[in-house]
Amino acid sequence: MQFEHLGARPRIHPDAVIAPSAVISGDVTIGAGCQVLHGAVLTAEGGPVVLGEHVIVMENALIRATSVNSVRIGSHVLVGPMASISGATIADEVFLATGVRVFNGARIGARCEVRINAVVHLRTVLPPETVVPIAWVAVGDPVQVLSPDRHEEIWALQHDLDFPGYVFGLDRETPDLMAQLTERYGSSLARHRADRRLES
User: Fold this and answer.
1) Cβ within 8 Å of residue 80, ≥6 positions away
2) Which fold has domain 2-198?
3) What confidence score (pLDDT) does residue 200 get?
């Protein structure tokens, strides 16, 4: 299914294959030889999503751009089932395994491997050919790759990256943080009310 969002329509190369149950919304460009499988969602929430050539987006993956952070994915990239990419830049020949999470402002270099259920945090930079092991967490610039049992170290690094400030423009110490966050974000997402389904 394809949707016009904020006046922008998807641009899909004629050689790309999009499953009937995939959702492509707004300013999304999909290059030659790409495959977008069932249940995948590519949504441009104010910024563009651009896929190079021969990108495979597997079942139920989510790729979301924001007005602050677009998504750019190079060529010959595999995005595994149930992976989530939000506002990140992915270079060529990258493997993102099942359940991977890549957050806003992250940059992943060429030929990196982010393995099953691993996380690449906000504004984290992975140099080319970096491997993030299964369920490990990459955080910071310069990056530190830490096992999930090292929560206090991860949190110390993550705290300084300021997720609520960077993504939502809100101070972490705001007393009613979640009330403000959900109302502000909800207003932004409500722009989908005017989306128009396109004939494929």
Assistant:
1) 58, 61, 95, 96, 97, 98, 99, 100, 116
2) UDP N-Acetylglucosamine Acyltransferase; domain 1 (2.160.10)
3) 62
